[in-house]
Amino acid sequence: xxxxxxxxxxxxxxxxxxxxxxxxxxxxxxxxxxxxxxxxxxxxxxxxxxxxxxxxxxxxxxxxxxxxxxxxxxxxxxxxxxxxxxxxxxxxxxxxxxxxxxxxxxxxxxxxxxxxxxxxxxxxxxxxxxxxxxxxxxxxxxxxxxxxxxxxxxxxxxxxxxxxxxxxxxxxxxxxxxxxxxxxxxxxxxxxxxxxxxxxxxxxxxxxxxxxxxxxxxxxxxxxxxxxxxxxxxxxxxxxxxxxxxxxxxxxxxxxxxxxxxxxxxxxxxxxxxxxxxxxxxxxxxxxxxxxxxxxxxxxxxxxxxxxxxxxxxxxxxxxxxxxxxxxxxxxxxxxxxxxxxxxxxxxxxxxxxxxxxxxxxxxxxxxxxxxxxxxxxxxxxxxxxxxxxxxxxxxxxxxxxxxxxxxxxxxxxxxxxxxxxxxxxxxxxxxxxxxxxxxxxxxxxxxxxxxxxxxxxxxxxxxxxxxxxxxxxxxxxxxxxxxxxxxxxxxxxxxxxxxxxx
Length: 503
Known about the structure:
The protein has 503 residues and is an alpha+beta fold. It has helices at residues 6-20, 36-46, 88-91, 93-102, 162-167, 169-175, 177-199, 240-248, 286-305, 328-336, 346-355, 366-378, 431-444, 457-464, 477-485, and strands at 54-66, 70-76, 81-87, 108-117, 123-134, 144-147, 153-156, 203-204, 210-211, 223-226, 231-235, 253-261, 273-282, 309-312, 315-318, 324-327, 386-392, 401-402, 405-416, 419-426, 470-476. Strands 8, 12, 13, 16, 17, 18, 19, 20 and 21 form a nine-stranded mixed beta sheet that branches. Strands 1-2-3-5-4 form a five-stranded mixed β-barrel. It has a three-stranded antiparallel beta sheet with strand order 9-11-10, with no helix packed on it. A hairpin with a 2-residue loop joins strand 19 (405-416) and strand 20. The chain is elongated.
């Protein structure tokens, strides 16, 4: 049974008192005619002609000043905030007393009246009637004071603890306008991605979330069980293998925006459940995908912020095309003096690193070791948008090899502010080569190795029908939101991030 605090008990007692007086505390219906911004706009439009504007507003009570025969309050709704003016001459002594004694910050109320402008110039609702729409039993968390021009101090709810904000996002949204703005921008980002892709003649599709075989990325899956079918199923780690099946079916440009699930660590840039956009483009290669990527991200940045230049964690980031391009071999050669093209196997790469006096993972195979070198020497340096391209085949089992160099594939990753944003290939469309790579992944990697890709016979069957050459792309939408809203942690851009259980 819930244990209530003393403050909550006071509010529960008020609920009992109101009900005893025949006042419904959680009525079924509201009569709102205007949002706060609509009411203000209607008044300002009619002000010159002195036309009376009557409005019924609804929202959360965010401040209140009771001054005897009058009271001032601020009501906040999804559109903004507006002042309410209660006067004993308009509503009577009994109702004014009811408001002062029985209404609390955080309550949802309905207020009816006429719009006017106060002596200080604030557009306000002169209240002729009001009622409670929902009583807030728990006070909104924390508090901060605002001092008005006349010296009056108003107490507002606030919430600054990062952990608490993530755990109680509903409270965070209720009291922090900046949080609401972040998620409005997130919605604009997703909408803008769709606008861009639709404008390039891509069609949006939906692929299975529960999959009999996981694949398309280097990650550990979540496993579940279907009782009737008596089979294990996996929450998808990528859309890739299903989207590419559609290319076989002659849908030449497809994309999906949706959730992926990876059973991996939680960090400032990782959450087990996250949003991605992936697209696949028949008859394109990774160079064309690079151009489309920089156009897309610049388009979204301008839609959301009004500019292709944004500030992220104190650094100015310019998303305008063209982005920087850095070939992986050259980047590593410049950064640490090791030429990966001269180190074609595990032993020679370990030897080269030892000769340079570079401490490194001693048991890592060549592909993983190159990935470690990128993390160690290149990633943090790529502040401005940069495409790092031409990756080792060992960690890119779904990408096409560079002609004449079977150990290197046509793959790029996009980095911004020292963080990976996107990943793309010239996609492998040779079913014989693909089967050999699946076999290689199953043979040479342990069962718990995230680089291991299970054999997907149905995907191979689809490829055998003929898959056009194509370029594919995946981007973490959450990370793009971080960049465009200046948030350091992915938790700040997820409404309900995954967190450890409360102790």
